[in-house]
Protein 1
Amino acid sequence: MSLPILRASEHLHDVKYEIRGALARRAEQLEREGHEIVKLNIGNPGAFGFRMPGSMRVAIVENLHQADPYSHQKGIFPAREAVVMQQQNRGVMDVTADDVFMGNGVSELIMLAMRALLNPGDEVLVPSPDYPLWTASVVIHGAKAVHYPCRPENGFVPDPAEVESLVTDRTRALVVINPNNPTGAVYPRETLAALAGIAERRHLVFCADEIYDEMLYDDAEFVPAATLAKNTLCLTFGGLSKIYRACGLRVGWLVCSGEREHARDYIQAVELLASLRLCSNVPGQYAVQTALGGRQSIFDLTRAGGRLHATRAAVLDAAARSRYLSVVTPQGAMYAFVRVHADRLPGGEKAFNDQAFALDLLERKHVLVAPGSSFNVPYRDHFRVTLLPDAEQMADVFARIESLLDEYAAA
């Protein structure tokens, strides 16, 4: 007797995460067949030889003897207090350890924050392109992600007037990802101030994903959103995964700042959800105080001569020499969002499909990238790469991409 089909929850019908989707599964199959795949689809520093600072490893080992029990649902006090001190050093003076939640990475905290906030039919303003977890975290709870455009011709910086035009009486929150994934844009102070003003006027929760806060290039300036959003609830998300190259520790934090008295019920709901998962990874939390209080080694990687800076230069050089590609110079984070000028290929823009291109690139050149449409944009002529390989390997990757596009052009 055959069993009835076991179907997935309807909540997942509109949830997409192509960064680890069908293309990544095909890459695994090719690896099992003996092929070496260059995986540029995900920002995973450890896979490219990066290591967390040694002082963080020491902090974990030295405290393992007290990491066996559950911690408080919000996290261990030294980690939360270290986050408070970081916020105060940035000019956010109205937070205490009680305003900080530690999580199993920022991803878990985004889900908790949205689950505590949203009802079916609510709306959240999310950038386009976005990190797709943000859209998923909204739609999985029956709400609607309303995407505000961050256009390539504007350096992927949003127009605040256009953002405000999308606010309705169902809008609950405004999300900002700065420095931005996938584009590398770093928002000017005036843009962030305008967006914070929208959140204040329209009584929205201002959600600031700042996981790449200190990963900056050249003269780019990072402005913490919490220094601008004073008269509404501001949620700031940060963690150890990117700046400190410690993805596997799964340590992130959420800081509640700004106006909070009106949001007590909501904040208590976040704590309830934090309690239901008992606590986040305790050993990893012991690395937070050391990470935030010591020398910031990320600057050695992003300044001129550093590895990330050199790889970024290799991408910019390859795009400048390409017959088919262009890229808006990333000012922060660890990605480049590259455009394919399909009008230079047979069939033009209507014939080019970023998903099909990414699959071809994987099958024929053994390079895995993330198609631009994975990031909730209406166009299909971009792809995202990480800046994690060294410059030599990245130059080789773009030579393979150029070769594939030459094959398209000759077809």
Protein 2
Amino acid sequence: MTASTERSAFRVFVAAISVAILLSFTVMSAIMSLRAESLIRQVELERARSIFGTLVLARRWNAGYGGVWVPKTAGVESNPWLANPDVETAAGTFTKRNPALMTREISEIATGETGFRFHITSLKPLNPGNVPDAFEREALGEFELRQTEEDWRIEELDDEPTFRFMGALLTEESCLSCHAVQGYKVGDVRGGISVSFPIGAMETARLRDLRLALGVSGALGLGLVALFLSLVRALRRKLDELRRELREQAVLDPLTGLYNRRWLMERLSEEFAKSRRTNQNLSLAIGDLDWFKLVNDQLGHPAGDAALKALACILKEGVRPYDLVARIGGEEFIVVLPATELSGAMALCERLRATVEETLAARAGFHERRTTISFGVATRQDSDELPDALLARADAALYRAKSAGRNRVESAAEPGPPEPDGPVRG
């Protein structure tokens, strides 16, 4: 996976998780809102049922006495739908209030004082004032089909949301005195009572709470997303650090911080191919600390490590930014010099040799022992087909430098002492 593909996949992952968090909070808010609305509707429904039940009991009490007689005082009218609604007594005139008229008069009082409205109605009303409206007609139709004995909905009445409830009225024995002529029998649905009351204040509170819940949930969701993004960024930084460390471990020598042999060979192949393609010079130097085994044996391995670190610093400081320096094993180092002819490579290595002789011991912390280095230098020839040929000539030149007394720079093109039977190192 390329770096750009990885970054793209990572961004998609972060976006998906962030959206999932926000959606989760939104869904939770919606569920809570729906649950709250359901509880409110249940309270309103129980309230309507209670009012309806109270009215039914009052009507049953009235019907049980065959109606209730009240004094016919000023403003009290007789029920025009009853036969002989008035009676004269020694105490004065009384007029009959049957269950239907009682319900209507209670509704008028409740509407003015409490906001509740009741309406007794039927599909076959005796009183034109009891004609059902659309909601009541629909509910009565369901009652007659015995699909239910109650119905409710929210409607806008007088520009305010209103809870409307409709309960079925079943024909009882006491009802037959008035309604038998309409063909009703005991147990038939002969009508219903609708109960209406405003719920504007409760709806306002519900919507306010909903907005508050959505706001809090949104803030919490955004906060969680911000926390998630912060953790993701921290994780990404840590992963980048680990990736960088792994990459460095793959290409760097852990002791000196120089490039390792594997990386050097890959880059050398690239530079070699470029040199052949562009017909530019390419030089290579192999350096090896002199008598390094004695440093380890006499001063200890910590001193040897200090010497290698000091040498790495001298090499990095002494070459150009585009030159390549690597440790290829033990006390052996390679310097790759692009676009450099043999004389330039020899001059550079001579400066490095002199610097090592003058400063390495002091940098490494053991002033009492002079430490030197030998270099073997080679330049690419037209007959070289692989970097191995260049390496072999530089290695042969290093052998000559070691055989000639060390602390010197030898070139593959220069004559020197015969090469030894085996490698001369140290």
